[in-house]
Write a structure and sequence with these properties.
The protein has helices at residues 3-18, 31-39, 42-53, 57-79, 87-101, 105-117, 134-139, 141-155, 158-181, 187-208, 210-219, 233-238, 245-250, 259-269, 282-303, 310-315. Helix 3 packs antiparallel against helix 4 (57-79), helix 4 (57-79) runs antiparallel to helix 5 (87-101) and helix 6 crosses helix 9 (158-181). The N and C termini lie far apart (63 Å). It is globular and about 65 Å long. It is mostly helical. The protein has two domains: 3-273, no CATH class; 282-315.
Length: 316
């Protein structure tokens, strides 16, 4: 049986399990929720820039994380047209975010739609990291992103491809401006260069870490379903509901605003689909540590010989 056939069978089982869940009402957004979706990342961005201008880089990195996570959520909802905005506004948001995140969101959008059409299947390049070990997913962050760009351009329509190349051009322009500004010693251009270089470096680092967090973290070792989820309220707050991932895959039209409510309904109707969490529980983590410690201890005891000790040999 091929990987695609396995996933097809799994999807049939999942569809039967969720057939009774009401979700259409969760597609609706109030004006306040739409405004929240549109504004969400930008206060964190401005805060990170201000911290960077003061050389408070630890605080700046915290604000940059919040900006990146919030912007990632905004872009993700934009891919699925669930921000509550029109198509032109969504396109403008994705274009702006591409420049701010230093990545082409229109090329990623093409591979993300392919990911939803064939999740973790043979043709799913976005979900390919789920099949490797965590350290391979971590080390291949940059090459993975480049593969996404190449595949995204191949899969894109002519219009989407033009938008992607426009984003690449704007990103290159921002990098050139930052490099030119570093040559100035006047206070205003020098401070702008400091902010821009900080922002470019942090965004590139964040983009390189997307694979391990947003792909491997939510898709690895999913036997009964196609993704993991999370129920820790603090973690979900700090990730802006992005880790409700099985909920998103099962109902991609539901905005991130309503994923917590959808999670409750899914827990009640099909709890076996939500038992695989992104972060392990304390009990699972302690079991892993204990098992690993026992393995190391057994290894040591089986391989250790008192006669091999150089100190014992010297004084024997």
């Amino acid at each position: 049986m091929t990987v695609n056939q396995t996933h097809a069978n799994k999807e049939q089982v999942i569809k039967k399990a969720i057939a009774s869940i009401e979700w259409q009402d969760l597609r609706q957004l109030t004006r306040g929720q739409i405004a929240y979706n549109v504004i969400l990342p930008y206060p964190f961005l401005l805060l990170s820039w201000w911290f960077a201008s003061q050389s408070w880089y630890v605080l700046a990195c915290g604000a940059s994380y919040l900006f990146f996570a919030a912007a990632f959520r905004q872009a993700h909802d934009g891919y699925h047209h669930s921000l509550g905005t029109g198509k032109r506004t969504t396109t403008a948001i994705l274009l702006l975010l591409s420049v701010l995140l230093m990545t082409s969101l229109h090329s990623i959008r093409a591979t993300h739609m392919a990911h939803h059409r064939d999740p973790l299947g043979d043709s799913d390049i976005e979900g390919s990291l789920a099949n490797v070990s965590w350290w391979q997913a971590l080390l291949s962050g940059v090459t993975y992103r480049l593969d996404i760009y190449r595949q995204g351009l191949r899969l894109s329509s002519r219009r989407n491809r033009r938008m992607a190349w426009l984003e690449f051009g704007l990103i290159a322009s921002i990098i050139m401006v930052a490099l030119v500004l570093t040559a100035f010693t006047v206070s205003a251009p020098a401070m702008l260069a400091q902010i821009l270089m900080y922002h470019i470096l942090t965004m590139m680092l964040a983009n390189a870490s997307v694979g391990i967090i947003a792909v491997w973290g939510v898709h690895h070792d999913c036997d009964e379903t196609i993704a993991r989820t999370e129920r820790n309220p603090l973690v979900n707050l700090l990730t802006f509901n992005l880790l409700y991932h099985v909920e998103h895959h099962l109902f991609p039209a539901v905005p991130s605003n309503h994923l917590p409510e959808l999670a409750k309904r899914l827990d009640a109707a099909a709890p076996h689909l939500t038992k695989a969490h992104v972060l392990p529980s304390t009990a699972v983590a302690m079991d892993f540590i204990n098992n690993r410690w026992n393995e190391l201890k057994d290894n040591y005891q089986n391989n250790y010989d008192d006669n091999d000790c150089p100190i014992r040999k010297r004084f024997a």
